[in-house]
């Protein structure tokens, strides 16, 4: 230690009593020698710690820790609940004793402290949570027994500005403790724009990465997982998030917005059912609210939608929806309220959060494995519900496509019922009688669907090209008709789902089916965006088949075989889209695109089971994708 001789000399003079210097001067000199700062101050704690052989960094660290903990203690002590007396009047004050103006000063001062202790992660979190808690509890109203409430007015812009300076100290990865979970929730409460920013950032990332497996990414991405857990602990924030995304979906019609809303709901429900999978302790998991808090608008309907898929539950669901919609219209006294029929509180909005029922209904339209006879279900009040599966499926799908216009909804239901009869009838349908002479068994269903689409487009009943849900009906039909549609026809219908374009056949003078030629060059020459959409549709189709297969079949082995059959039908179209996509020019921004595509291809290959062992074309394509990043 370079100052050791000087310190020894000062102690010697203190011990023997120096005549030329007073004790105060000697103590000042000793303090200056022992402390980091050369400014002479009396710091007994630093001196004592130094004499006990603590190093200077340890002394400095202890000083910072004690100072921050003191600030935190003071901020926590400011929150109280007391009665204040002003003459004969009594005022009940709940929250912080800091006024609005003082709160802003404290937030700015704490922001300066956070900037200086930012390297001390734990200290930053403690201080950030304390100042946010103080800001949230700042008294806004004073209630008196004799006077009207008194509002402490403060400039919102200044508070939001101060909050924006604190947000940057928010840790990206949150430890699953009550305090740090509440920190993000407090930020959302103080400024709801923070919630909008978090949700919009996830949405932008999902749009920029079309091949991302959103369900897996929301769990594996630490920051996204923290947001999901925070939503699970705050039913109010989940309701606000659903409302936000639902408004965006109504304004834009983007499928990616709807998908994110669906996944948010799905993941929050997963947290409620399996908290330990998400890293929550049993103690913290026991504090999660019940599902009623998240869906108090339509909780009875939610209880049906959240249950496993089945034919009986589906009929019960349709009857409950019809009852709920009819009741809502009676309450509104038939006043035209389009917004209330599709807002985030509506029956339609919550049904859109559970799309598996929509695909299940589309499968039922094809009669996949089910007879079209009457099926009996029992409601929650033990009342029999007897109706045709296909009729209920047609009603449900039509209502999802157009929940506002009853005439359009009814006309669509008739069209779907007619298609269902054509698909399940062993004899030639009316569509096939018009176009075909001797159709083959494995072409009837695909030709029926194609001719039905042509008729619906000509009728212009609904804007099917811009309706994000209409083309997804075809995905359910493809799953239901997977045994009766060839790979070539599968490709044409998948192209329609991806692009909204129905390829026309070029026929010779004979009307027989064998003379038809399909313009596959139109598929090959599509834009890069269409190739991406085509590959994504294949991934979505397999995901849907995987989710619904357990409800369609009694054994796991049969369900796995079914998924594999679907994969064999679509592998050709998938490889065609991916190979064409690889031919486009790439840049450095495509690295993440190809990484996501590579991951999805590997995941898709092993869904159900790997039936492509030794499939050279698929192996080569996956290897080429891997070489791109």
In short:
With 629 residues, the protein is mainly α.
What does this structure look like?
With 629 residues, this protein is mainly alpha-helical. Among the domains are: 51 residues, no CATH class; 112 residues, no CATH class. Helices cover 63% and strands 6% of the residues. The strands form three sheets. A four-stranded antiparallel β-sheet has the order 1-2-3-4. Helix 5 runs parallel beside helix 7 and helix 20 crosses helix 21.
Task: Give the topology, please.
Layout: H1 4-16, H2 23-34, H3 44-51, H4 56-77, E1 79-86, E2 89-96, H5 100-116, H6 121-136, E3 141-144, E4 150-151, H7 156-167, H8 178-190, H9 193-208, H10 214-220, H11 222-233, H12 235-252, H13 255-273, H14 282-285, H15 299-305, H16 311-331, H17 338-342, H18 347-352, H19 356-365, E5 374-378, E6 384-388, H20 389-401, H21 406-424, H22 430-435, H23 444-459, H24 470-480, H25 487-499, E7 505-506, E8 517-518, H26 521-524, H27 528-552, H28 556-582, H29 591-605, H30 616-626
Antiparallel strand pairs: 1-2, 2-3, 3-4, 5-6, 7-8
Helix pairs in contact: 1-2, 4-6, 5-6, 5-7, 6-8, 8-11, 10-11, 11-12, 11-13, 12-13, 16-20, 19-20, 19-24, 20-21, 21-23, 24-25, 25-27, 25-28, 27-28, 28-30
Keywords:
63% helix; mainly alpha; 8 strands; 629 residues
């Amino acid at each position: 230690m370079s100052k050791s001789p000087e310190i020894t000399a000062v102690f010697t003079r203190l011990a023997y009593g120096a005549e030329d210097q007073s004790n105060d001067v000697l103590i000042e000199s000793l303090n200056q020698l022992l402390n980091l700062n050369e400014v002479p101050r009396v710091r007994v704690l630093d001196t004592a710690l130094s004499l006990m052989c603590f190093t200077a960094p340890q002394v400095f660290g202890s000083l910072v820790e004690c100072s921050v903990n003191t600030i935190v203690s003071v901020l926590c002590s400011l929150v109280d609940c007391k009665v204040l007396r002003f003459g004969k009047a009594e005022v009940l004050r709940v929250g912080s004793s800091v006024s609005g103006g003082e709160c802003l000063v404290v937030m700015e001062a704490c922001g300066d402290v956070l900037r200086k202790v930012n390297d001390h992660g734990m200290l930053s979190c403690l201080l950030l949570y304390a100042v946010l808690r103080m800001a949230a509890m700042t008294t806004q109203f004073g209630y008196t027994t004799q006077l009207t409430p008194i509002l402490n007015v403060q400039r919102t812009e200044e508070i939001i500005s101060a909050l924006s300076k604190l947000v940057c100290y928010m840790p990206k990865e949150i430890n699953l403790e009550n305090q740090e979970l509440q920190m993000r929730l407090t930020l959302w409460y103080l400024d709801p724009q923070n919630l909008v920013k978090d949700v919009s950032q996830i949405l932008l990332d999902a749009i920029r990465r079309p091949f991302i497996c959103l369900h897996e990414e929301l769990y594996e991405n630490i920051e996204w997982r923290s947001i999901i857990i925070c939503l699970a602990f705050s039913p109010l924030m989940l309701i606000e998030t659903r409302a936000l995304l639902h408004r965006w979906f109504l304004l834009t019609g983007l499928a990616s917005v709807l998908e994110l809303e669906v996944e948010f709901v799905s993941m929050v429900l997963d947290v409620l059912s399996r908290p330990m999978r998400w890293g929550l302790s049993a103690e913290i998991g026991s504090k999660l609210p019940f599902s009623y808090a998240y869906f108090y608008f339509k909780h009875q309907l939610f209880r049906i939608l959240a249950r496993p898929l089945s034919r009986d539950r589906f009929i019960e669901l349709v009857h409950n929806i019809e009852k709920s919609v009819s009741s809502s219209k009676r309450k509104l006294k038939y006043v035209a309220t389009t917004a209330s029929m599709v807002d985030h509180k509506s029956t339609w909005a919550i049904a859109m959060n559970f799309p598996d029922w929509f695909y299940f209904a589309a499968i039922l339209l094809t009669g996949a494995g089910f007879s079209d006879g009457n099926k009996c279900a029992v409601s929650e009040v033990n009342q029999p519900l007897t109706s045709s599966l296909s009729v209920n499926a047609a009603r449900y799908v039509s209502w999802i496509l157009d929940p506002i216009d009853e005439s359009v909804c009814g006309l669509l239901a008739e069209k779907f019922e007619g298609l269902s009869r054509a698909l399940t009838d062993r004899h030639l349908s009316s569509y096939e009688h018009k176009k075909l002479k001797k159709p083959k068994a494995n072409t009837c269903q695909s030709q029926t669907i194609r001719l039905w689409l042509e008729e619906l487009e000509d009728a212009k009943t609904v804007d099917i090209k811009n309706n994000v849900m209409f083309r997804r009906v075809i995905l359910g039909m493809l799953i239901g008709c997977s045994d009766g549609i060839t790979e070539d026809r599968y490709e044409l219908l998948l192209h329609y789902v991806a692009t909204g374009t129905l390829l026309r056949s070029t026929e010779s003078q004979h009307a027989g089916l064998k003379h038809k030629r399909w313009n596959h060059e139109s598929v090959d020459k599509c834009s890069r965006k269409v190739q991406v959409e085509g590959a994504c549709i294949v991934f979505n189709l397999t995901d849907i088949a995987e989710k619904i297969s357990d409800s369609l079949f009694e054994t796991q082995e049969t369900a796995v075989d079914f998924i594999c059959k679907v994969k064999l039908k679509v592998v050709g179209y998938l490889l065609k889209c991916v190979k064409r996509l690889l031919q486009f020019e790439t840049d450095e921004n495509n690295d993440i695109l190809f990484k996501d595509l590579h991951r999805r291809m590997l995941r898709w290959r092993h869904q159900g089971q790997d039936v492509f062992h030794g499939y050279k074309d698929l192996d080569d394509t996956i290897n080429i994708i891997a070489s791109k990043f």
